[in-house]
């Protein structure tokens, strides 16, 4: 579904954002895309959606070249950008005008998702808060049933109850032929819904594994005292430490994505 080789992009000669990035992804995954500020997550999504042209390398997504922006590609892909502006019309009118571009669009799903977000399609988008508007575009993205959905910081602007609803919606409205990529700094907002993890740093992919593989390789534990020889990474908490160590127990421990991301940023070579 996604095949990217030696991808390169820079906004200037002195600011290379993406450098020799390689990535292969199949359908049937909800992927978390993590990285520090400036790591190129938003730029990567713009490249995948064809909004900007690579400086080098090859991108083949859904058997198309994104920057050609062919209608056949755009109808199978949807981008939820971090910053956006929707027209000042009712939600129903926006759906009626935009949904025809997406052959698999499900209007009944749209209505259902709006209800879960405590919205109705009679509301005018102009009168909505930023958080409410974000709910509209998330609901629309999922209702397209697009084969590729890119979400850049989707939980920004959502309050705590809405984030919980977002997680339930994501888990319950996903099909096997879809690939969803979610870029975020709010790791705890997605740690229960993703089944694959990608981490960007230094212009490329430094980690690309399933969450299942993480549970098979490492134990995520809270301990009172550190065992230095058995600990790959640790952070102090009240009463002890959160740690990552090589897998020892037969029972799987719950992956702490925030802890693991910090560990990668500290020394990712330990985990390759």
Short descriptors:
272 residues, alpha/beta, Rossmann fold, 2 domains, six-stranded mixed sheet, three-stranded antiparallel sheet, 8 helices, 12 strands, globular
CATH class of the largest domain: Alpha Beta
User: Could you tell me the strand content as a percent range?
Assistant: 25-35%
> How many angstroms does the end-to-end distance come to?
24 Å
Quick one: biggest sheet?
6 strands, mixed
Cα gyration radius (Å): 20 Å
Report the mean per-residue pLDDT as an integer: 93
The total domain count is: 2
Low-confidence segments, given as residue ranges, are none
Keywords: ATP-binding, Nucleotide-binding, Transport
GO molecular function: ATP binding; ATP hydrolysis activity
Protein name: ABC transporter ATP-binding protein
Pfam families: ABC_tran
Structure report:
Residues 2-227 form the ABC transporter domain. One of its GO terms (molecular function) is ATP hydrolysis activity. This protein has helices at residues 41-49, 71-74, 91-98, 107-116, 130-143, 160-172, 211-217, 257-267; strands spanning 2-12, 15-25, 29-35, 56-61, 77-80, 148-152, 179-183, 196-201, 204-210, 218-223, 233-237, 240-246. The protein is globular, with a radius of gyration of 20 Å. It is 28% helix and 29% strand. The chain has 272 residues and is α/β, with parallel strands linked by helices. It contains 8 helices and 12 strands.
Summarize the topology.
Elements: E1 2-12, E2 15-25, E3 29-35, H1 41-49, E4 56-61, H2 71-74, E5 77-80, H3 91-98, H4 107-116, H5 130-143, E6 148-152, H6 160-172, E7 179-183, E8 196-201, E9 204-210, H7 211-217, E10 218-223, E11 233-237, E12 240-246, H8 257-267
Helix pairs in contact: 4-5
């Amino acid at each position: 579904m996604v095949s990217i080789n030696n991808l390169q992009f820079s906004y200037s000669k002195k600011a290379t954002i993406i450098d020799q990035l390689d990535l292969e992804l199949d359908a049937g995954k909800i992927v978390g895309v993590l990285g520090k500020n400036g790591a190129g997550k938003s730029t990567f999504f713009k490249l995948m959606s064809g909004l900007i042209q690579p400086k080098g390398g090859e991108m083949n997504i859904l058997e198309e070249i994104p920057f050609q922006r062919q209608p056949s590609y755009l109808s199978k892909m949807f981008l939820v950008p971090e910053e956006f502006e929707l027209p000042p019309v009712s939600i129903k009118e926006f759906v009626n005008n935009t949904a025809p571009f997406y052959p698999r669009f499900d209007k009944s799903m749209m209505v259902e998702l709006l209800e879960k977000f405590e919205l109705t399609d009679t509301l005018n988008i102009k009168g909505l808060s930023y958080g409410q508007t974000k709910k509209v575009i998330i609901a629309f993205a999922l209702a397209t049933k697009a084969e590729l959905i890119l979400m850049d910081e989707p939980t920004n602007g959502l309050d705590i109850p809405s984030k919980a609803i977002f997680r339930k919606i994501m888990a319950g409205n996903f099909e096997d032929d879809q690939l969803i990529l979610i870029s975020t700094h709010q790791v705890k907002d997605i740690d229960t819904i993703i089944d694959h993890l990608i981490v960007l740093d230094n212009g490329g992919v430094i980690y690309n594994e399933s969450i299942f593989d993480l549970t098979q390789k490492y134990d995520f534990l809270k301990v009172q005292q550190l065992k230095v020889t058995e600990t790959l990474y640790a952070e102090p908490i009240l009463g002890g430490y959160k740690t990552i160590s090589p897998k020892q127990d037969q029972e799987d421990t719950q992956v702490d994505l925030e802890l693991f991301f910090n560990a990668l940023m500290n020394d990712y070579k330990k985990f390759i």
